[in-house]
Amino acid sequence: MDAQVESAIQIAFDPRADQNLKAQAYEFLQQLRDDASGWQVCLALFTRDPSPDEVVRHVCLELVSHAVQTGRLDEQSLSYVKDQLMTYIHQTFANQANRIDSPSIQNKLTQTVTYLFTSLYATAWPTFFQDFRALAGDANTIGSDNPQGTILYLRLINSIHDEIADVLIPRTPEELKRNADLKDYVRSRDAQNISTFWQQVLARWRQIDLGIVELCLRCVARWVSWIDISLVVNENMLNFLLEIAGQSDISSAESPQAKIRDAAIDTFTEIVAKKMPSQDKIQLISYLNLANVAGQLVASSALNQSRGTSNYDNDLGETVAKLVNNVVFDVVKVLDSEGLDANTAAQADELLQLFVPYLLRFFSDEYDEICSAVIPSLTDLLTLFRVSSKRGALPDQYRAMLQPILDTIILKMKYDETADWGAESDQTDEAEFQELRRRLHVLQQAVAAVDENMYMETLSRVVATTFNRISSDNKPNWRDLDLALYEMYLFGELAVKNGGLYQKSSPSSTASQHLIEMMAKLVESDIASYPHPAVQLQYMEICVRYCTFFEHSVESIPRVLENFVRFVHSDHIKIKTRSWYLFFRFVKQLRSQLGNVAQTVIETVADLLTINAEVPKETDDDDMSSEENDQSADAVFTSQLYLFEAVGAIASTTSVPLENRMLYARTLVSPLIADLERHIPAAKNGDERAVIQVHHIIQAVGTLAKGFCDWMPGNTSGAPPPSELANEFSPAGEAVLTALESLKNSMLIRTGARFAFSRMLGVLGSGILQKLPRWIDGLLAQSSTKDEMATFLRLLDQVVFGFKAEIIEILDQLLTPLLQRVLAGLSEPTTGTDDAIQLGELKMQYLQFILVILNNDLAPVLVSSANQQTFETILTTLEHFCRDTSDYPTARLSLAVLTKMTQVWGGPDLTIPVLPGGAQAAAPTVPGFDTFIMSRFSPLTWALITQPSFQPKDAQARSYLTEAATLQWTILRKCGAAYEAHLRDSEMSGLGLQGPIIDEYIKHLEAKDKLDFKKFFIQFVQQVRS
Fold it and tell me: The Exportin-T C-terminal domain covers which part of the protein (predicted)?
């Protein structure tokens, strides 16, 4: 058996082995793992002398470890495993001359012994720690005569902590109980001896392998959280820790000396983090003299003289920062606690005064990892200040800390001197810095919540000082300007938090007044001419963000507009493309103030309105850059579209005379039409670039139209454009339609045309209706996807809603061919998950389109002579959807359509409840419709409910049931007594329900409150189904 197991392991992990053999070997090993006695052969193989291959030993020990961990061994078997492994450990680790196992074997052995500890220590192995302590040698030889024995013992101590005391690992209640008991046993039996062992190792730290010292310190740092504090905080231990932590002659951050120093500091950090009463915690921090420890480390050469050089020890900086963070966190927690005595509060205040300078030292560190290490405690500190200020005046000693805190936060917002903005290689660093800025902004907001006036004055001073330096000899660099602009951008959150910058033409708040002054300085300064993209981008972002400033300072617009025109022509691709969007935002908001410069602006950007399509490069498809940094041809064109909309917005402002607007429209549209007509022949012949050019021109026409008129049919706000302006765009609409008809088999062209159609609705108005059949024919071509159909149906919803008074005749003509194409799409088989999703969306949009027709008084179109046959097909699809248990949302919406049909054609509501002898006759608007809805619609409310796969407690199924209840409730009010009789004699009796149940059901159905019946119906179905 041993040989068979050994062979199977070798085959399974041999990369050269036959795959069929490997599969058999893996299956055999899995069976061995599941076998209740499989561990025995594995244990024998692992401890065999001579030893088998490394991989065989590792897999065998893993199978033994699994058997121990999963509790499949009784105590006798566990003791046997323990005895065998201890024999092996003594042979391997008790004599340094013997061969030492590889690290992977040692790790697995440590894990297995740890599992044995959890099973046997409480009862059958109380000498566990003594047994392994003996391997390490006596106090005089620890770490020298047999270092491997010392290392094994320390690794076991660490592993035991991870298994029974690591709070980050989720545990079952049984494991928590077991671990609590084991910790109690360790504390009472062995903790003192373990502490003595640590002190013996640390006493020899200069004479032994420093790796052993580091391992020992890691043990202390782990265990201090759950053993008696006196076992760590005692004179001997503290002397060792202070001596090791205070080393000042370390030349390299990677040296063993540096590693044990960092480990000693981490130990202090964990000691401080130990849970204890507030008074005890403050006394502990004072007793440890950690302020002095931190001060010495901050003043050390590694963190002081070397700061800003390549010799700076950032690992040490982060380690000390974590210590300072923990201390401040605990001190703040004490100060924020209830019932704090005066003496403890005074001590805590004193500690805070000592540590805040260190906190700010590390917070201002140029390494973001070090800065981030103290953000949690700084956040807590500011929260304490905010709470204190709300209780009354903030104490002077705390108020004095606010200004340096805010100054440091602002300083950290600035780009490092080594930062290279915009470099492709620095995108990750840039993203991390922007994330840090967001965290710093939260801290700034916290400062503002404590002292808003100080915050406003400080930010205003930073911005004003920086802007003033532009015209001085001490000119700011791009980092200074970026910082000022960024702070100005953020300042708006305070300035406009109550609604806006202005209230009745005056600043709405003190913060608004500050921001208005900043904006005035921004415009007056020559900052827009600074030749750095970061500054130029921030300038534009701010002008757009605070556009309302220009509504009240109109005289500033020309200068800013001139800067925008320069930016849109920038040679820097990111500046240029981003400025196209921001230029659009700027002129869109200020269009009413731009009528007098419309012609000038149009002329200055006209050269940018030429479209030059490019065939995408293969690298564009593989580009993983963010949307913000996307510089592909498609992304550039998408940005260019904003220019077309911006020009349209400027040219169409009401302050421009109508004849000028018409002229601008003609001037802008004509070149696009000519270019479109020029490229259609090549596109029809399959020229890829020509197809893309046609697509781009079509989208540009649609975007320009939207710029001229953002009013949409059906909107109650605003007004449609003058007919003269609509006439100027009519040739453009015809040109787009002609291109679509010529190239309707191209999805790209259909996509562009659909884009343009949606944006030209406003400017063309009802004039588009006569050409609607041509649009439908082009956009719903034979090759159109379900997704395209669904998207176009959404557009038609807008058309029907917007032109409901004018569309009835054209809708009557086009409904049947339209729905035939849609129904053909619905009947096509799905070929994958994406296709199934698109089918579901098409179903929903098809039903939504019918609802839009019904909701806008266009129902006669559905049952007209031209569409009668199609109406029957519609009903068939509705019946099919209502019975589909795999698609509750579509079934629910189908019922909603039936309900609306019932409301529209069912006639006036009858008196409910039906009184004996006083029943009213139904009066449907379509003769015989009352009988029709009872025979065709009502049975559908039970269609899903009676299917075995229906789950009435499913959330979507419950939504379906509410719609089914609504349909029944509506039918009763249209058909009255006839429907009650139909339910009694046909539907409910057909379900096997008895008279009393049916009577109770109809009584609830007659209730005036529809919501009550919905609730009853859901409960009724659940009871019947159960």
Answer: 343-1024
Angstrom CA distances, 942 to 464, 805, 885, 964, 1001, stand at 73, 38, 12, 8, 14
Residue 135 one-letter amino acid: L
> Residue-wise over 21-32: b if at least 16 C-beta within 10 A, else e?
ebeebeebbeeb
Residue 814 and residue 773 in contact, taking contact as beta carbons nearer than 8 Å? yes
Give me the average pLDDT of each 10-residue run along the chain (1026 residues): 90 92 94 93 94 94 96 95 95 73 94 97 96 89 85 96 94 96 97 96 90 96 96 94 86 88 95 93 94 93 89 93 97 92 94 96 94 97 94 90 96 90 78 94 96 96 96 93 97 86 90 96 94 96 96 95 96 96 97 92 96 82 54 92 97 93 96 97 96 98 95 82 94 97 96 97 93 94 92 95 91 94 92 91 97 96 94 96 93 97 95 72 91 96 91 92 97 93 92 90 92 95 86
Q: Spell out the domain ranges in the chain.
A: 1-103, 126-251+260-271, 898-1025
**Entry field: residues in the chain:** 1026
Structure tokens at 330: 């605990």
Distance CA 605, CA 834 (A): 42
Strands 502-503 and 506-507: antiparallel
CA distance 493 to 6: 69
Structure tokens at 4: 């068979």
**How many whole angstroms separate alpha carbon 194 and alpha carbon 161?**
13
Please name the residues in contact with 1017: beta carbons below 8 A apart, sequence gap of 6 or more: 961, 962, 964, 965, 968, 1004
Describe the crossing of helices 995-1005 and 1010-1025 by its angle, rounded to 10 degrees: 150
- DSSP E strand stretches across 178-296: none
CA atoms within a 13 Å half-sphere pointing along the CA-CB vector of 712: 12
DSSP code per residue over 997-1019: HHHHHHHHHT-S-HHHHHHHHHH
How far is residue 236's CA from residue 416's CA, in Å, rounded to a whole number?
44
Alpha-carbon gap, residue 798 to 777, rounded angstroms: 18
Beta bridge partners of 503: 506
Please list the residues that pair with 507 across neighbouring strands. Answer: 502
Q: How much of the chain is helix, strand and coil, in % rounded to 5?
A: 75, 0, 25
**How far is residue 714's CA from residue 691's CA, in Å, rounded to a whole number?**
34
- Distance of alpha carbon 743 from alpha carbon 779, whole angstroms: 10
Look up residue 555 and give its DSSP letter: G
CB 642, CB 580: distance < 8 Å:
yes
- Residue found by looking up tokens 């079952």 in the block: 172
- Kind plus residue range of the DSSP H or E element containing 502: strand 502-503
Structure tokens at 942: 């039970």
DSSP 863: G
For 635, the token pair is: 């992304």
Which residue matches tokens 């600074």? 530
